[in-house]
Amino acid sequence: MALLITIGKGRVDSIKGSLSSSSSSWSRGRNNNNNCWKKKIAAATAASGVPNSNYVVPLDNSSCIKRPLAEILRDLNKRVPDNIIHSKTNWIPWYHANRMLSFYAPGWCGEISDVIFSENGSVTVIYRVTIRGSDGEAHRESTGTVTPSDGHEDPVAAAEEMAFCKACARFGLGLYLYHEEET
């Protein structure tokens, strides 16, 4: 089973090219199934007639796609296609961040470290994202705070979304969007 995500024309070719060029480092310590990611991409593309504007996120047996942390972080620091950036807020929506992490860093996990309710009614969520590579793992934490005046139906979920996206940015995913706000 595979999940297809539209992110922009020509992206599949560049992703396949980068995966192919680094496949020798992927195969260290693996069994004969080290090309399973190639088979999954080819099968999903052939079965569904997927155009070049999609990439495939394997949802099963993704442990065969472990890469060194340096490669994962390099990929997460690439520019994100403009069509997935929320135009009003200039942020990457949480569901796109989730999918991109699943593509570039299969096996990642996230957790809420703490939820803080303050006297003024604001809610702060501390969120931790862990990325696992073939050579270790890395963690990043961030906070998201929502005030009652923000008018969110579920302030804890809104604060969690904000904290998750900021933790992803600490890995480099869309980090440049925060810098563009300052200039």
CATH architecture of the largest domain: 2-Layer Sandwich
Helix/strand class: alpha+beta
The figure for the number of domains is 2
Number of helices: 7
CATH topology of the largest domain: Double Stranded RNA Binding Domain
- Radius of gyration, in angstroms, nearest whole number: 18 Å
Strand coverage percent: 15-25%
The counted number of beta strands is: 5
Q: Shape, please?
A: globular
Helix content: 25-40%
Mean pLDDT: 73
The first-level CATH class name of the largest domain: Alpha Beta
SSE layout:
Layout: E1 2-6, H1 11-21, H2 23-26, H3 36-48, E2 54-58, H4 69-76, H5 94-104, E3 109-117, E4 123-133, E5 136-146, H6 155-170, H7 175-182
Antiparallel strand pairs: 1-2, 3-4, 4-5
Describe the structure.
There is one protein chain. With 183 residues, the chain is an alpha+beta fold. It contains seven helices and five strands. It has a three-stranded antiparallel β-sheet with strand order 3-4-5. A two-stranded antiparallel ribbon has the order 1-2. Strand 3 (109-117) and strand 4 (123-133) form a beta hairpin. The termini are far apart.
